[in-house]
């Protein structure tokens, strides 16, 4: 079912600084979340005639991160648990670039917190967990490792029946063009979220 434009425009208007970044094609709506390098808004795409998720670079952040994420997502478009990515746009005036993507539902951290006891029903949790494992496995098979696995980076689809793995800004290619593992570096900086990373990651 198509969501009408008014559904987006009826929510609080984003700050002028954010509205200036994107072209008139997009009508910004509510803020969905933010990370170290970007902010995500719901927006109405007047060309596609549907609501999308718009990921906008923060000012003064590394300018290659969002482009890299767009390239990774483009490589993973055949995977079942990866959202559709539509456009990468460079804004030469504001120096803030953005990606437009398929609009999904809540992340699993929010879904869990929305339950009164903070727990998911056992059957639903098992159903979700199996899909999370599938999402990670298919990403690895496609030659990438995510490097920031946590509940907030898994998002439910609109009907809550499918799980998607999102936020590939820290991803790393681990297979070469022939499908063989790329040799590990002797020393690598920490990547990920401290409270969710494995113990080995803290000592690398």
UniProtKB/TrEMBL annotation:
Chain segments annotated as coiled-coil in the UniProt record: none
Enzyme class: transferase
Family annotation (Gene3D superfamilies): Transferase(Phosphotransferase) domain 1 (1.10.510.10)
Domain Protein kinase, first and last residues per copy: 26-204
GO molecular function: ATP binding; protein serine/threonine kinase activity
Residues the entry annotates as binding ATP: 55
Transmembrane domains' residue ranges: none
Top-rank lineage group of the source organism: Eukaryota
EC number: 2.7.11.1
Record key words, sorted: ATP-binding, Kinase, Nucleotide-binding, Serine/threonine-protein kinase, Transferase
Pfam families in the cross-refs: Pkinase
Family: Belongs to the protein kinase superfamily.
Record's protein name: Casein kinase I
Organism: Euplotes crassus
